[in-house]
Amino acid sequence: MALKIDIITLFPEMLTGFLCESILKKAQEKGKVEIRLVSPRDFAKDKHKTCDDKPFGGGSGMVMKPEPVFRALEKVETPEAHVILMSPQGEKFVQKKARHLAQKTHLIFICGHYEGIDERISHLADEEISIGDYVLTNGALAAAVVVDAVVRLVPDVLGNPDSALKDSFSNGLLEYPQYTRPRVFREEGVPEILLTGDHQKIEKWRHQQSLEKTKKRRPDLLLSYKNT
Ligand SMILES: C[S@@+](CC[C@H](N)C(=O)[O-])C[C@H]1O[C@@H](n2cnc3c(N)ncnc32)[C@H](O)[C@@H]1O
Question: Which backbone phi and psi does 55 adopt, to 5 degrees?
């Protein structure tokens, strides 16, 4: 059964190119995912299709109104849907969460805009996800980041299913260095071990490289790796 994904965003055009390329495109063609872009503007009832208003209590910027988002969600929601609000105030997105979301059958992403959303919209969500400690102008790109990471983990989406198992974070470490042809490029050669054909030794070398890279770049990951 295909994983259904609905992205509720005021800027669907920002994502149309993203959905028509590479793995996302192939995943839809293979029938592994069904992705719909839903604009709250289509659910605004006034003639100007208003989706924002001034904040109660004063202050700068505009706030995303609840009614169009509620109606958009009611249109696409199913009993099995898992609703995610994209927010810089949410839990930070990591690979483990991507794996968890890839097992769901229906994901709905709500993307904010303007100064923020009416807090009542947050009550619609099962969880809030942030893609990092910085603030984007709207949630479309943030949702795209999560969708991309999730879709490549849906079974049979990647041509070689083993490749995702070796990715950074999958076993708690950063991935080892990779090389392809040419064997020597601008005077830098490929490590000799990779040319030996000795798969046991290559695996050992790769694991060692993974450990060293992680120690150097992300020592925080090693703490939980040692405890696994
Ligand atoms: C300009 S931001 C609003 C930020 C809000 N004023 C705050 O300080 O928390 C507008 C929208 O972009 C999205 N967004 C911005 N940064 C994000 C992040 N790091 N992760 C996920 N979504 C983000 C959210 O949907 C948010 O509602």
Answer: -75, 135
